[in-house]
From TrEMBL:
PANTHER family: LIPASE, LIPASE-LIKE PROTEIN
The name this protein goes by in its record: Glutamyl-tRNA (Gln) amidotransferase subunit A
InterPro entries per the UniProt record, alphabetical: DUF620
Organism: Gossypium gossypioides (Mexican cotton)
Pfam family, one: DUF620
Annotated Polar residues bias: 21-35
Domain of life: Eukaryota
Length: 471
Protein backbone atom coordinates (compact mmCIF):
# COMPACT_ATOMS: atom_id res chain seq x y z
CA UNK A 1 0.00 0.00 0.00
CA UNK A 2 2.93 2.30 0.69
CA UNK A 3 4.20 1.68 -2.83
CA UNK A 4 0.80 2.55 -4.28
CA UNK A 5 0.72 5.87 -2.45
CA UNK A 6 4.25 6.62 -3.58
CA UNK A 7 3.41 5.78 -7.18
CA UNK A 8 0.34 7.98 -7.36
CA UNK A 9 1.98 10.90 -5.56
CA UNK A 10 4.81 10.69 -8.08
CA UNK A 11 2.28 10.41 -10.90
CA UNK A 12 0.43 13.47 -9.65
CA UNK A 13 3.65 15.48 -9.47
CA UNK A 14 4.54 14.49 -13.02
CA UNK A 15 1.07 15.38 -14.21
CA UNK A 16 1.25 18.81 -12.64
CA UNK A 17 4.52 19.35 -14.51
CA UNK A 18 2.79 18.47 -17.75
CA UNK A 19 2.45 14.68 -18.13
CA UNK A 20 0.27 13.80 -21.13
CA UNK A 21 0.53 12.00 -24.48
CA UNK A 22 1.29 15.26 -26.28
CA UNK A 23 3.81 16.21 -23.62
CA UNK A 24 5.57 12.91 -24.04
CA UNK A 25 5.78 13.46 -27.79
CA UNK A 26 7.09 17.02 -27.44
CA UNK A 27 10.56 18.26 -28.28
CA UNK A 28 11.32 18.97 -24.64
CA UNK A 29 14.06 17.18 -22.77
CA UNK A 30 13.36 13.65 -21.58
CA UNK A 31 12.22 13.24 -18.01
CA UNK A 32 12.47 10.47 -15.51
CA UNK A 33 9.76 9.66 -13.03
CA UNK A 34 6.56 7.69 -13.05
CA UNK A 35 5.96 4.57 -15.15
CA UNK A 36 3.46 6.45 -17.33
CA UNK A 37 5.92 9.19 -18.22
CA UNK A 38 8.57 6.59 -18.94
CA UNK A 39 6.08 4.53 -20.95
CA UNK A 40 5.12 7.32 -23.27
CA UNK A 41 8.49 9.03 -23.57
CA UNK A 42 9.72 9.12 -27.15
CA UNK A 43 13.11 9.48 -28.74
CA UNK A 44 13.64 12.91 -30.25
CA UNK A 45 13.44 12.69 -34.04
CA UNK A 46 13.51 15.12 -36.92
CA UNK A 47 9.91 14.39 -37.89
CA UNK A 48 8.43 14.95 -34.42
CA UNK A 49 4.95 16.29 -34.99
CA UNK A 50 3.42 16.92 -31.59
CA UNK A 51 3.99 20.24 -29.92
CA UNK A 52 4.49 20.40 -26.19
CA UNK A 53 2.14 22.74 -24.44
CA UNK A 54 2.54 24.36 -21.09
CA UNK A 55 2.01 22.63 -17.81
CA UNK A 56 -1.43 21.33 -17.03
CA UNK A 57 -3.08 21.95 -13.71
CA UNK A 58 -4.19 18.81 -11.95
CA UNK A 59 -7.77 18.59 -10.80
CA UNK A 60 -8.23 18.72 -7.02
CA UNK A 61 -8.18 15.31 -5.39
CA UNK A 62 -8.50 13.35 -8.65
CA UNK A 63 -10.21 9.99 -8.70
CA UNK A 64 -7.81 7.48 -10.24
CA UNK A 65 -8.66 3.86 -10.88
CA UNK A 66 -6.18 1.41 -12.25
CA UNK A 67 -5.45 -2.26 -12.68
CA UNK A 68 -2.11 -4.03 -12.47
CA UNK A 69 0.48 -4.18 -9.75
CA UNK A 70 3.18 -1.70 -8.85
CA UNK A 71 6.62 -0.67 -10.07
CA UNK A 72 9.10 1.05 -7.73
CA UNK A 73 8.96 4.82 -8.07
CA UNK A 74 11.86 6.43 -9.85
CA UNK A 75 12.71 3.40 -11.97
CA UNK A 76 12.55 4.94 -15.42
CA UNK A 77 11.77 2.86 -18.48
CA UNK A 78 13.90 2.81 -21.60
CA UNK A 79 12.90 5.35 -24.28
CA UNK A 80 10.45 4.12 -26.90
CA UNK A 81 12.14 3.78 -30.27
CA UNK A 82 10.53 3.68 -33.69
CA UNK A 83 10.15 -0.10 -33.66
CA UNK A 84 11.62 -3.40 -32.55
CA UNK A 85 13.88 -5.76 -34.35
CA UNK A 86 11.72 -8.17 -36.39
CA UNK A 87 13.38 -11.07 -34.62
CA UNK A 88 12.72 -9.64 -31.17
CA UNK A 89 12.73 -11.56 -27.95
CA UNK A 90 9.73 -12.85 -26.06
CA UNK A 91 7.89 -10.57 -23.66
CA UNK A 92 8.82 -11.01 -20.01
CA UNK A 93 6.56 -12.61 -17.42
CA UNK A 94 7.00 -10.03 -14.66
CA UNK A 95 3.73 -8.69 -13.30
CA UNK A 96 4.86 -5.45 -11.64
CA UNK A 97 3.34 -2.17 -12.78
CA UNK A 98 5.06 -1.08 -15.96
CA UNK A 99 7.06 -4.30 -15.98
CA UNK A 100 5.08 -5.72 -18.88
CA UNK A 101 5.67 -2.63 -20.98
CA UNK A 102 9.13 -2.32 -19.47
CA UNK A 103 10.13 -5.73 -20.79
CA UNK A 104 8.54 -4.85 -24.11
CA UNK A 105 10.31 -1.50 -24.30
CA UNK A 106 13.67 -2.91 -23.22
CA UNK A 107 13.49 -6.16 -25.14
CA UNK A 108 11.38 -5.12 -28.11
CA UNK A 109 11.88 -1.40 -28.71
CA UNK A 110 15.26 -0.51 -27.25
CA UNK A 111 17.12 -1.62 -30.36
CA UNK A 112 17.59 0.33 -33.54
CA UNK A 113 14.63 -0.16 -35.87
CA UNK A 114 15.02 -2.40 -38.86
CA UNK A 115 12.92 -0.37 -41.25
CA UNK A 116 14.27 -2.00 -44.38
CA UNK A 117 13.45 -5.46 -43.10
CA UNK A 118 9.94 -4.42 -42.12
CA UNK A 119 9.26 -2.97 -45.54
CA UNK A 120 10.20 -6.28 -47.13
CA UNK A 121 7.73 -8.16 -44.95
CA UNK A 122 4.39 -7.76 -46.63
CA UNK A 123 2.76 -10.03 -44.08
CA UNK A 124 3.72 -7.66 -41.26
CA UNK A 125 2.43 -4.68 -43.21
CA UNK A 126 -0.85 -6.49 -43.76
CA UNK A 127 -1.06 -7.46 -40.09
CA UNK A 128 -0.55 -3.92 -38.87
CA UNK A 129 -2.59 -2.32 -41.64
CA UNK A 130 -5.69 -4.35 -40.90
CA UNK A 131 -5.34 -5.30 -37.22
CA UNK A 132 -3.50 -2.45 -35.52
CA UNK A 133 -6.15 0.29 -35.38
CA UNK A 134 -9.43 -0.68 -37.08
CA UNK A 135 -12.43 1.59 -36.51
CA UNK A 136 -15.94 0.80 -35.37
CA UNK A 137 -18.60 0.88 -38.11
CA UNK A 138 -20.60 3.95 -37.01
CA UNK A 139 -20.26 7.17 -35.06
CA UNK A 140 -21.58 7.12 -31.50
CA UNK A 141 -22.20 9.82 -28.92
CA UNK A 142 -21.50 8.53 -25.44
CA UNK A 143 -23.19 11.57 -23.90
CA UNK A 144 -26.56 10.43 -25.24
CA UNK A 145 -28.44 8.19 -22.80
CA UNK A 146 -29.43 4.70 -23.83
CA UNK A 147 -32.94 4.40 -25.33
CA UNK A 148 -35.66 4.14 -22.74
CA UNK A 149 -36.81 0.56 -22.38
CA UNK A 150 -40.18 0.41 -24.10
CA UNK A 151 -42.41 -2.51 -25.00
CA UNK A 152 -45.50 -0.75 -26.33
CA UNK A 153 -45.46 -0.12 -30.09
CA UNK A 154 -41.86 -1.43 -30.27
CA UNK A 155 -40.73 -4.48 -32.27
CA UNK A 156 -39.72 -7.37 -30.05
CA UNK A 157 -36.23 -7.42 -31.61
CA UNK A 158 -35.67 -3.78 -30.63
CA UNK A 159 -37.12 -3.97 -27.11
CA UNK A 160 -35.12 -7.15 -26.42
CA UNK A 161 -31.92 -5.41 -27.51
CA UNK A 162 -32.70 -2.46 -25.21
CA UNK A 163 -33.21 -4.82 -22.30
CA UNK A 164 -29.94 -6.66 -23.03
CA UNK A 165 -28.03 -3.37 -23.13
CA UNK A 166 -29.56 -2.30 -19.82
CA UNK A 167 -28.31 -5.54 -18.30
CA UNK A 168 -24.89 -5.09 -19.90
CA UNK A 169 -24.57 -1.55 -18.52
CA UNK A 170 -25.50 -2.74 -15.04
CA UNK A 171 -23.09 -5.70 -15.21
CA UNK A 172 -20.26 -3.42 -16.40
CA UNK A 173 -20.51 -1.13 -13.39
CA UNK A 174 -23.66 0.90 -13.82
CA UNK A 175 -24.39 4.04 -15.81
CA UNK A 176 -23.72 6.45 -12.93
CA UNK A 177 -20.19 5.13 -12.38
CA UNK A 178 -19.46 4.99 -16.10
CA UNK A 179 -20.61 8.60 -16.54
CA UNK A 180 -18.08 9.67 -13.90
CA UNK A 181 -15.22 8.52 -16.17
CA UNK A 182 -13.81 11.56 -17.97
CA UNK A 183 -10.76 9.89 -19.50
CA UNK A 184 -9.01 6.54 -19.53
CA UNK A 185 -5.63 4.96 -20.19
CA UNK A 186 -4.80 1.35 -21.05
CA UNK A 187 -1.59 -0.49 -21.84
CA UNK A 188 -1.21 -4.03 -23.12
CA UNK A 189 0.99 -6.50 -24.95
CA UNK A 190 0.07 -8.63 -27.96
CA UNK A 191 1.17 -11.15 -30.52
CA UNK A 192 0.17 -11.14 -34.19
CA UNK A 193 0.59 -13.91 -36.75
CA UNK A 194 -0.46 -14.51 -40.36
CA UNK A 195 -1.52 -18.13 -39.99
CA UNK A 196 -3.09 -19.19 -43.28
CA UNK A 197 -3.24 -18.25 -46.96
CA UNK A 198 -5.64 -19.97 -49.34
CA UNK A 199 -6.10 -19.82 -53.10
CA UNK A 200 -8.38 -21.74 -55.43
CA UNK A 201 -5.76 -24.45 -55.87
CA UNK A 202 -3.88 -24.71 -52.55
CA UNK A 203 -3.76 -23.71 -48.89
CA UNK A 204 -0.56 -22.57 -47.17
CA UNK A 205 -0.49 -22.65 -43.36
CA UNK A 206 2.04 -21.04 -41.08
CA UNK A 207 3.81 -23.98 -39.44
CA UNK A 208 6.14 -21.84 -37.36
CA UNK A 209 3.45 -21.26 -34.75
CA UNK A 210 4.54 -18.91 -31.99
CA UNK A 211 8.01 -18.58 -33.54
CA UNK A 212 6.48 -16.77 -36.52
CA UNK A 213 4.41 -14.42 -34.37
CA UNK A 214 5.20 -10.74 -34.13
CA UNK A 215 5.30 -9.59 -30.51
CA UNK A 216 4.63 -6.05 -29.42
CA UNK A 217 2.44 -3.82 -27.33
CA UNK A 218 0.20 -0.78 -27.37
CA UNK A 219 -0.91 2.20 -25.33
CA UNK A 220 -4.36 3.77 -25.58
CA UNK A 221 -5.65 7.10 -24.28
CA UNK A 222 -9.28 8.21 -24.37
CA UNK A 223 -11.10 11.38 -23.36
CA UNK A 224 -14.68 12.60 -23.61
CA UNK A 225 -16.07 13.45 -26.00
CA UNK A 226 -14.89 11.29 -28.92
CA UNK A 227 -11.14 11.77 -28.42
CA UNK A 228 -8.63 8.92 -28.43
CA UNK A 229 -5.03 8.12 -29.32
CA UNK A 230 -3.42 4.70 -29.81
CA UNK A 231 0.17 3.71 -30.50
CA UNK A 232 1.03 0.12 -31.42
CA UNK A 233 4.44 -1.34 -32.24
CA UNK A 234 5.25 -4.86 -33.41
CA UNK A 235 7.83 -6.58 -35.55
CA UNK A 236 9.84 -3.53 -36.58
CA UNK A 237 7.06 -1.04 -37.36
CA UNK A 238 4.87 1.30 -35.39
CA UNK A 239 1.34 2.45 -36.18
CA UNK A 240 -0.21 5.54 -34.62
CA UNK A 241 -3.81 6.66 -34.86
CA UNK A 242 -5.95 9.23 -33.14
CA UNK A 243 -9.09 11.32 -33.09
CA UNK A 244 -9.51 14.87 -31.81
CA UNK A 245 -13.31 14.69 -31.90
CA UNK A 246 -13.54 16.16 -35.41
CA UNK A 247 -11.42 13.87 -37.57
CA UNK A 248 -9.72 10.50 -37.39
CA UNK A 249 -6.11 10.28 -38.55
CA UNK A 250 -3.58 7.51 -38.93
CA UNK A 251 0.16 7.19 -39.48
CA UNK A 252 2.00 4.16 -40.85
CA UNK A 253 5.61 3.95 -42.06
CA UNK A 254 4.46 3.09 -45.59
CA UNK A 255 1.61 5.59 -46.05
CA UNK A 256 2.62 8.41 -43.73
CA UNK A 257 -0.07 10.50 -42.05
CA UNK A 258 -3.57 10.66 -43.49
CA UNK A 259 -7.14 11.11 -42.40
CA UNK A 260 -9.76 8.39 -42.49
CA UNK A 261 -12.76 8.65 -44.77
CA UNK A 262 -16.20 9.08 -43.30
CA UNK A 263 -17.51 10.29 -39.95
CA UNK A 264 -15.63 10.22 -36.66
CA UNK A 265 -15.78 6.67 -35.29
CA UNK A 266 -14.49 4.99 -32.13
CA UNK A 267 -11.46 2.74 -32.12
CA UNK A 268 -12.57 -0.88 -32.36
CA UNK A 269 -9.81 -1.97 -30.00
CA UNK A 270 -11.52 0.05 -27.25
CA UNK A 271 -14.74 -1.92 -27.80
CA UNK A 272 -12.90 -5.15 -26.97
CA UNK A 273 -13.77 -4.94 -23.29
CA UNK A 274 -12.06 -1.62 -22.45
CA UNK A 275 -14.90 0.87 -22.90
CA UNK A 276 -18.32 -0.47 -21.87
CA UNK A 277 -20.08 2.90 -22.19
CA UNK A 278 -19.06 3.36 -25.84
CA UNK A 279 -19.89 -0.29 -26.52
CA UNK A 280 -23.42 0.12 -25.16
CA UNK A 281 -23.89 3.32 -27.19
CA UNK A 282 -22.64 1.53 -30.31
CA UNK A 283 -25.42 -1.09 -30.04
CA UNK A 284 -28.14 1.41 -29.07
CA UNK A 285 -29.90 0.97 -32.44
CA UNK A 286 -29.23 -2.77 -32.75
CA UNK A 287 -31.73 -5.62 -32.94
CA UNK A 288 -31.70 -8.94 -31.10
CA UNK A 289 -31.61 -11.65 -33.76
CA UNK A 290 -31.32 -14.79 -31.64
CA UNK A 291 -29.09 -16.81 -29.33
CA UNK A 292 -25.86 -18.76 -29.66
CA UNK A 293 -23.49 -20.70 -27.44
CA UNK A 294 -20.01 -19.12 -27.31
CA UNK A 295 -17.32 -21.15 -25.54
CA UNK A 296 -19.87 -22.83 -23.31
CA UNK A 297 -21.88 -19.68 -22.54
CA UNK A 298 -25.37 -19.03 -23.87
CA UNK A 299 -25.42 -15.58 -25.45
CA UNK A 300 -27.88 -13.14 -26.95
CA UNK A 301 -26.88 -11.80 -30.39
CA UNK A 302 -27.31 -8.11 -31.21
CA UNK A 303 -26.93 -7.00 -34.82
CA UNK A 304 -26.10 -3.47 -36.01
CA UNK A 305 -26.11 -2.46 -39.69
CA UNK A 306 -24.35 0.66 -40.96
CA UNK A 307 -26.56 3.21 -42.71
CA UNK A 308 -26.10 3.68 -46.50
CA UNK A 309 -25.12 7.35 -46.13
CA UNK A 310 -22.29 6.38 -43.76
CA UNK A 311 -21.06 3.73 -46.18
CA UNK A 312 -21.10 6.27 -49.00
CA UNK A 313 -19.10 8.76 -46.94
CA UNK A 314 -16.47 6.10 -46.26
CA UNK A 315 -16.11 5.07 -49.93
CA UNK A 316 -13.21 6.43 -51.96
CA UNK A 317 -12.81 6.64 -55.74
CA UNK A 318 -12.94 3.14 -57.26
CA UNK A 319 -13.54 1.53 -53.84
CA UNK A 320 -17.16 1.35 -52.71
CA UNK A 321 -18.07 -0.04 -49.30
CA UNK A 322 -21.28 -2.02 -49.82
CA UNK A 323 -22.09 -3.10 -46.26
CA UNK A 324 -20.70 -3.15 -42.75
CA UNK A 325 -22.41 -5.27 -40.08
CA UNK A 326 -21.53 -5.58 -36.38
CA UNK A 327 -22.57 -8.47 -34.12
CA UNK A 328 -22.32 -8.46 -30.34
CA UNK A 329 -22.64 -11.63 -28.24
CA UNK A 330 -23.78 -10.88 -24.66
CA UNK A 331 -23.64 -13.59 -22.02
CA UNK A 332 -27.02 -14.56 -20.60
CA UNK A 333 -25.32 -15.50 -17.32
CA UNK A 334 -23.14 -12.45 -16.65
CA UNK A 335 -24.60 -9.86 -19.02
CA UNK A 336 -21.09 -9.03 -20.31
CA UNK A 337 -19.90 -8.88 -23.91
CA UNK A 338 -17.94 -12.06 -24.69
CA UNK A 339 -17.61 -11.83 -28.46
CA UNK A 340 -17.74 -9.04 -31.04
CA UNK A 341 -17.69 -9.66 -34.79
CA UNK A 342 -17.86 -7.24 -37.66
CA UNK A 343 -17.69 -7.72 -41.39
CA UNK A 344 -17.56 -5.24 -44.23
CA UNK A 345 -17.70 -5.82 -47.97
CA UNK A 346 -15.87 -3.54 -50.41
CA UNK A 347 -16.18 -3.46 -54.19
CA UNK A 348 -13.17 -2.19 -56.17
CA UNK A 349 -13.65 -1.34 -59.84
CA UNK A 350 -10.30 -0.87 -61.57
CA UNK A 351 -10.05 0.95 -64.87
CA UNK A 352 -10.94 -1.39 -67.71
CA UNK A 353 -10.97 -4.48 -65.50
CA UNK A 354 -13.39 -6.69 -63.69
CA UNK A 355 -14.75 -5.73 -60.28
CA UNK A 356 -12.98 -7.24 -57.28
CA UNK A 357 -14.69 -7.76 -53.92
CA UNK A 358 -12.99 -7.75 -50.52
CA UNK A 359 -14.76 -9.06 -47.44
CA UNK A 360 -12.94 -8.22 -44.20
CA UNK A 361 -14.13 -10.00 -41.04
CA UNK A 362 -12.76 -9.36 -37.53
CA UNK A 363 -13.95 -11.81 -34.89
CA UNK A 364 -12.86 -11.04 -31.30
CA UNK A 365 -13.31 -13.09 -28.13
CA UNK A 366 -13.10 -11.32 -24.76
CA UNK A 367 -12.01 -13.00 -21.55
CA UNK A 368 -10.73 -12.49 -18.01
CA UNK A 369 -13.15 -9.78 -16.90
CA UNK A 370 -11.96 -8.08 -13.72
CA UNK A 371 -13.23 -4.94 -11.97
CA UNK A 372 -11.16 -1.77 -12.02
CA UNK A 373 -12.75 0.44 -9.36
CA UNK A 374 -16.12 -1.03 -10.20
CA UNK A 375 -15.79 -0.98 -14.02
CA UNK A 376 -15.58 -4.45 -15.54
CA UNK A 377 -12.62 -4.65 -17.94
CA UNK A 378 -11.69 -7.62 -20.16
CA UNK A 379 -8.00 -8.21 -19.45
CA UNK A 380 -7.31 -10.65 -22.28
CA UNK A 381 -8.68 -11.81 -25.59
CA UNK A 382 -7.95 -12.84 -29.14
CA UNK A 383 -9.03 -11.80 -32.62
CA UNK A 384 -9.22 -13.73 -35.87
CA UNK A 385 -9.17 -11.63 -39.05
CA UNK A 386 -10.18 -13.07 -42.41
CA UNK A 387 -9.60 -11.28 -45.72
CA UNK A 388 -11.57 -12.90 -48.52
CA UNK A 389 -10.98 -11.67 -52.07
CA UNK A 390 -13.16 -12.79 -54.94
CA UNK A 391 -14.27 -11.58 -58.34
CA UNK A 392 -16.25 -12.58 -61.39
CA UNK A 393 -13.69 -15.27 -62.26
CA UNK A 394 -14.58 -18.34 -60.23
CA UNK A 395 -11.01 -19.54 -59.66
CA UNK A 396 -9.52 -16.19 -58.66
CA UNK A 397 -10.48 -16.08 -54.98
CA UNK A 398 -7.96 -15.84 -52.15
CA UNK A 399 -8.39 -15.97 -48.38
CA UNK A 400 -5.92 -14.74 -45.79
CA UNK A 401 -6.35 -15.57 -42.12
CA UNK A 402 -4.55 -13.70 -39.33
CA UNK A 403 -4.69 -13.93 -35.55
CA UNK A 404 -3.94 -11.65 -32.63
CA UNK A 405 -3.81 -12.39 -28.91
CA UNK A 406 -3.57 -9.61 -26.33
CA UNK A 407 -3.43 -9.06 -22.60
CA UNK A 408 -4.12 -5.84 -20.72
CA UNK A 409 -1.38 -4.91 -18.23
CA UNK A 410 -2.59 -1.58 -16.86
CA UNK A 411 -5.78 0.48 -16.83
CA UNK A 412 -6.28 3.92 -15.28
CA UNK A 413 -9.33 6.19 -15.17
CA UNK A 414 -9.57 9.96 -14.73
CA UNK A 415 -5.85 10.59 -15.21
CA UNK A 416 -5.22 14.18 -14.03
CA UNK A 417 -3.79 16.70 -16.45
CA UNK A 418 -5.09 15.05 -19.62
CA UNK A 419 -6.49 17.72 -21.94
CA UNK A 420 -7.60 18.24 -25.53
CA UNK A 421 -4.04 19.33 -26.37
CA UNK A 422 -3.00 15.71 -25.98
CA UNK A 423 -5.00 14.71 -29.08
CA UNK A 424 -3.71 17.22 -31.63
CA UNK A 425 -3.30 15.64 -35.11
CA UNK A 426 0.17 15.35 -36.71
CA UNK A 427 1.63 18.54 -38.13
CA UNK A 428 2.08 17.05 -41.62
CA UNK A 429 -1.57 15.96 -41.84
CA UNK A 430 -3.50 17.57 -44.67
CA UNK A 431 -7.25 17.53 -45.17
CA UNK A 432 -7.01 14.94 -47.95
CA UNK A 433 -7.98 11.41 -46.97
CA UNK A 434 -7.23 7.83 -47.94
CA UNK A 435 -9.77 5.02 -48.01
CA UNK A 436 -9.63 1.86 -45.92
CA UNK A 437 -8.85 -0.30 -48.97
CA UNK A 438 -5.31 1.10 -49.23
CA UNK A 439 -4.26 -1.41 -46.56
CA UNK A 440 -5.55 -4.41 -48.53
CA UNK A 441 -3.21 -6.39 -50.82
CA UNK A 442 -4.06 -5.54 -54.39
CA UNK A 443 -3.04 -6.73 -57.83
CA UNK A 444 -1.26 -4.23 -60.05
CA UNK A 445 -4.46 -2.78 -61.55
CA UNK A 446 -6.05 -2.48 -58.16
CA UNK A 447 -2.94 -0.86 -56.71
CA UNK A 448 -2.82 1.67 -59.53
CA UNK A 449 -6.45 2.65 -59.08
CA UNK A 450 -6.13 3.05 -55.31
CA UNK A 451 -2.86 4.99 -55.54
CA UNK A 452 -4.33 7.34 -58.15
CA UNK A 453 -7.35 7.97 -55.94
CA UNK A 454 -5.07 8.73 -53.00
CA UNK A 455 -2.93 11.06 -55.10
CA UNK A 456 -6.01 12.91 -56.34
CA UNK A 457 -7.13 13.40 -52.76
CA UNK A 458 -3.73 14.76 -51.75
CA UNK A 459 -3.56 17.08 -54.77
CA UNK A 460 -7.05 18.35 -54.06
CA UNK A 461 -5.97 19.16 -50.53
CA UNK A 462 -2.67 20.77 -51.50
CA UNK A 463 -4.17 24.22 -51.48
CA UNK A 464 -5.99 23.77 -48.20
CA UNK A 465 -4.78 24.82 -44.80
CA UNK A 466 -2.43 22.46 -43.04
CA UNK A 467 -3.28 21.58 -39.45
CA UNK A 468 -1.47 23.97 -37.12
CA UNK A 469 -0.32 23.17 -33.64
CA UNK A 470 -0.17 25.57 -30.73
CA UNK A 471 3.16 25.67 -28.93
Amino acid sequence: MEKKQGFFSSLKEDVIRGLSPSRSRSNSLARTGSPMSGLLRRKKTSNQYYAGGGGYVAQPEPFIARSGSLRPVGEALAPLMEGPDPDGVEIGDSKRVGSGIGQWVKGQLSRSPSVTASYKRSDLRLLLGVMAAPLAPVHVNCNDPLPHLSIKDTPIETSSAQYILQQYTAASGGQKLQNSIRNAYAMGKLKMVACEYETATRTVKNRNGSKGAESGGFVLWQMNPDMWYVELAAGGSKVRAGCNGKLVWRHTPWLGSHTAKGPVRPLRRALQGLDPRTTASMFADARCIGEKNVNGEDCFILKLCTEPQTLKARSEGPAEIIRHVLFGYFSQKTGLLVRIEDSHLTRIQSNGGDAVYWETTIDSYLDDYRPVEGIMIAHSGRSVVTLFRFGEVAMSHTKTKMEEAWTIEEVAFNVPGLSVDCFIPPGDLKSGSIGETCELPQDEKGKTAIVLAAQRAKLAAAGNTIWKMEV
